[in-house]
Write a structure and sequence with these properties.
mainly alpha, 17 helices
Length: 341
C-alpha cells in the first residue's frame, strides 16, 4: 500500500524542480534545485526499505530480482523519453549531438560525462546507487542485524567522504558559483535516506521520533534552512549546506512515513484537497521529471514570457508527465508485478 505522506513529499520535490526551471526569479525558482536532493533522500529510504523488508521476510536478498524490478521501473520510460526527445530535436530543430553525449545518456554516465539533457545526471546517480545496493546487499546483508553499529559507522564514513570530497573540490573555487554532479559528491542524500530506512525498520526509530516530535521538527527546520540564505552552488551550500539539508530531509521523510493516509477531519475543502493533489503529482513524479525540460524547450519556442510562460510550462509538464505515466510507465509496472512479483 502506498504511503500518502511519502507521495506528498515526492510531489513537493518534483514541483520544486519544475519551478527551478522557470524563467521567473522568485524564491521557488531560487531554491527549486533542492527538489533533486529531496528525491535522493526519498530514493535512499525507499530502496533501503525494500532491501530490509525482503531480508526480514525471507532471510536473504535476491539481487537479480531487485535489479530486474528497478529496470522495469526506470529503463522503458527513460529510453522512450530519450528516443522521442532526440528524434524531435533532430528532425524538427536540426539539433545533433556528438556520439559520446548520447552514449553517456544510454549507459547512465551523465553524472560524470557530457550528456544531452541537463537533468538526467540525477537519474544516473540513483542508478549507480541501485547497482551498489544490489551488489553490497547481496554480499553483506546478513551482517546488518548482527553488526548494526558497524553498518551505521560505514554510512557515517561515507557521509564524511562525500563532504570532504566536495570540500576539496570546492575550496579552490570558493569565490565562484559552480555545479557538482558526480555521484560520489552527491551520494550523501541517498545514504541519509538509506540510514533512515535502517533506523525505522531495524531500530524502531518511530518510538523516539514520536516521543521527541517537536525537537526533531525544530531540528529538521534548522537543518533545511541553508538554501533560504545561501545561494545554490556557493562554497557553503556545496559543503556544509548540502550535508545539513540532506539530514533535515531525512527527518522530514521519517515524519512523512507516519502519514499512511491523509486525515480529512478539517472542513476546509482547500486544506483537504491540496495534499491529495500534491500526492497525486508525486505518484507520477518520475515521468513528470523525465519530460519537464523537453516540454519547456518546446513551449518557450512560442515566445511566451512572464506568468503566462510559467503557468503553461508547469501545467503542460504535469499533463505530459502524467499522460506518459499512465500510458507507458504504469502498464510496464503491471507486467513487472505479473512476472517478477
Amino acid at each position: 500500500m502506498r504511503i500518502q505522506g511519502l507521495d506528498f513529499i515526492r510531489g513537493v520535490a518534483v514541483l520544486l524542480v519544475l519551478f527551478r526551471h522557470t524563467n521567473d526569479v522568485n524564491v521557488l525558482q531560487r531554491i527549486g534545485w533542492v527538489g533533486v536532493d529531496l528525491f535522493f533522500v526519498l530514493s535512499g529510504f525507499l530502496i533501503g526499505s525494500l532491501v530490509l523488508n525482503e531480508f526480514s521476510s525471507k532471510g536473504a536478498f535476491n539481487a537479480k530480482r531487485f535489479f530486474i524490478r528497478r529496470a522495469f521501473k526506470i529503463y522503458p520510460a527513460f529510453y522512450f523519453f530519450l528516443f522521442v526527445s532526440l528524434a524531435v530535436n533532430f528532425f524538427e530543430h536540426d539539433l545533433t549531438y556528438e556520439p559520446r553525449f548520447i552514449i553517456a545518456e544510454i549507459f547512465f554516465l551523465q553524472s560524470y560525462l557530457p550528456h544531452v539533457w541537463t537533468h538526467t545526471w540525477s537519474i544516473a546517480v540513483e542508478e549507480h546507487f541501485y547497482l551498489a545496493v544490489a551488489i553490497i546487499a547481496a554480499w553483506r546483508i546478513r551482517k546488518l542485524s548482527a553488526h548494526g553499529n558497524r553498518f551505521l559507522l560505514w554510512m557515517f564514513l561515507l557521509l564524511v567522504f562525500a563532504f570532504i570530497s566536495r570540500f576539496i573540490i570546492c575550496f579552490p573555487k570558493r569565490h565562484h558559483e559552480f555545479a557538482i554532479f558526480s555521484t560520489h559528491l552527491r551520494m550523501d542524500g541517498i545514504i541519509v535516506g538509506f540510514v533512515c530506512a535502517y533506523l525505522k525498520r531495524v531500530r524502531n526509530f518511530d518510538t523516539i521520533l514520536m516521543k521527541y516530535t517537536w525537537l526533531f521538527l525544530a531540528s529538521a527546520l534548522f537543518l533545511i534552512s541553508p538554501p533560504f540564505f545561501a545561494s545554490g552552488g556557493s562554497f557553503f551550500m556545496n559543503t556544509i549546506g548540502l550535508t545539513s539539508m540532506n539530514l533535515g530531509f531525512g527527518i522530514i521523510v521519517l515524519f512523512a512515513t507516519q502519514i499512511q493516509r491523509f486525515d480529512f477531519s478539517n472542513k476546509n475543502i482547500l486544506i483537504n484537497f491540496l495534499p491529495l493533489v500534491v500526492a497525486f503529482v508525486g505518484v507520477h513524479s518520475y515521468s513528470i521529471y523525465l519530460w519537464h525540460l523537453f516540454v519547456g524547450q518546446e513551449l518557450y519556442r512560442f515566445g511566451l514570457s512572464g506568468i503566462s510562460a510559467t503557468f503553461a510550462y508547469i501545467v503542460m509538464s504535469l499533463m505530459v508527465g502524467i499522460f506518459f505515466s499512465y500510458v507507458l510507465e504504469k502498464p510496464i509496472l503491471v507486467l513487472r508485478e505479473r512476472f517478477f512479483n
